[in-house]
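Hi D.,

Good news: the full-assembly prediction came through. Inputs first.
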Amino acid sequence: MTAITEPEAATTASGSGDRAARSFRPRYPAWLTAPSFLYYAIFFLGPMAILVAFSLATQKGFGSLSYGFDIAQYRLIFTSFYLDIFARTLLMAGIGTVLTVLVGYPVAYWMARYLTTYKMLALLLIVVPFWTSFLIRTYALKIILDPNGYLAKDLGINILYTKYAIAVGLVYNYLPLFILPVFASLERMDWTLIEAATDLGARPFNAFRQITLRLTLPGVVTGALLVFIPMTGEYIIPNILGGGTYEFVGNVIGDQFNSAQNEPFGSALSIGLMAALSIFVIVYILVATKEERFGA
Amino acid sequence: MNKDRDDLNLLAPRELRPKFDYLHREVQRAAGHPIDRRRALGLGGMAIFAAAAAACGTTTAGGTAPGSASASKDSLAGKPLENHLEIYNWSQYDDPSTYTKFKALPAEANVGMTIHETYYSSNDELLAKLHAGGTNYDIIVPSQNAVAELIDEKLLLALDKSLLPNLKYLDPSFLKPSYDPTGDYHIIKDFGITMFFYNNKIVKEPLATMLDFYHALPKYVSKGRTNLLDGAEEVVPLALMALGLDPNTDSQADFGTVKNFLLSIRKGVTTIDSSAYINDSIAGKIILSQGWNGDVRRIVQGRKKFGDITPIIPHKASEIWADNWCIPANAPHPVAAHAWINWLLTPSTAVTEMNYHNYKIPMDAALAQLAPSLRNDPMFNVPKSYTDGYHYILNVSPQVVEARTQIYTQFKAA
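Then the structure:
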């Protein structure tokens, strides 16, 4: 496979080089991007730099830091206790993502393949919950999961203030973020390929697995990352649906800033979380570029 | 902002200080809003030079400074009352009439007193603001742990007791608490305690101490939701006190003991929450929980028709907390700030205040004037026999706070 793809990649690269040389691109003066870059530098890179400076500082007293290059905070992360918190956060986010895929994919598939007149309406209904605040939605879920509610009383599902409630909350809150990109890639599907496959004797499941799933995989991976990343940074859901008894990294970071007034360690934890997530993003980029080659 | 004063000392002889103060006030009055001293003096100086240049040295503002006699370093006695007060407070924490009546007092009305108030929602927010600097508050209302921290950081003004004649009404046992041993930097605003309550239809055995409460948790958790108050500064020190240890300990052995104890009762705790528990309890969802006395009072009243909540003020030890009037070291209007505190120490004002916020002000003259339903409610007027054994929870040092936070995080993650 590599033997075939690599020359291909080389030709496309040289091809785009030719195109650039011929330059049919509209002219776009670089300085027009200056306001955007300025905004980006001040409000995105700025806070990041402050976070890094915090994480390398030493706590002197309450609210006072001495800046320097102290990696003690990062060492503290690598104690078994905090590693456990990281592991459980990633595990919970992973489970949440898998569940989101299992719930979201069939919905997106159904919308893209079988809805015609009501497609836009269905899409609208998926997005509607986003018009209310995240916090309110989570509180609303609390009513459904309440021990005195129908779920608990009639069905015996009493899970409020456990990790199961957190998982339900994660899936519920992030589902639209997953459905939308998957729907977009399913929309572009050429369904005649499935017809061709069945004509050639493929069972429906095989046709789905070998064609539909493969072609929509980039959408699934995008959607999964789109929900996985914010899930790992989740703070509100564990707090409300876990009753404050289940800790994600986000909650530990919150405690470091709010109650311990220990900005260095809180910042180091934040950067540690970002580093952990970068690994997943790198995996994504590798998978995504590979898929692009398939497409080409 | 001590720096301003130092600059002044370097640049001008001390005798000129009252004149500069006067100039500062005049400029503020002209501008119509508070201005910090440096800018005010700058503006005032320019005005004087302009006036001098134009009118060739007729009388300038400096000549008529009133009350400029005794300006020793810390004494404010004899200084004139400023005409503005900048308050940084918890929201809805004082009766609206307290403000209007203060402005209508003879001396205050005479100078045309104005009050501007902004709000914070946690001590951390207050501390962050003060640490960042550049503030111009005259009055702040920190809780006990923040007071201790601010004293340590030299951010509070030593109060001039000669400007607080009404201090005599306050219960003397509240003047020199552990968080301000000299009693120089704070005046208590009101205080409360941490107690617990249970649903007496489910919990049948009598519980009397905080330790009883903790032991009951694993026993009853299967019958309904149990709750602890949220935060490392609550969970760890309260458990230390239940075990008969010092809540403000910095001993590793004590931390080890309390950690093991907390982990042993962990399975008995459904939620750790300090805000939703009030409404959830009124809705009958909580069977056993800690709570602050004002909140528990609301819960008991909310469950009156069911009569199933038994409130317990713990014997032996629990937490006492206090909110306090303090003046930042850089307050631009210290005399007005003292006048405000003195006004709040007036028994009639204290009565209005207590009827408004329902937290106890330790002032017998005012308590006697309250309606019996409030005065005789032990959840409001917590008997001294209980609070004598109670402790303030303090942020002793960053190391102690970090140790508490670690135990708290481990407790929650268990």
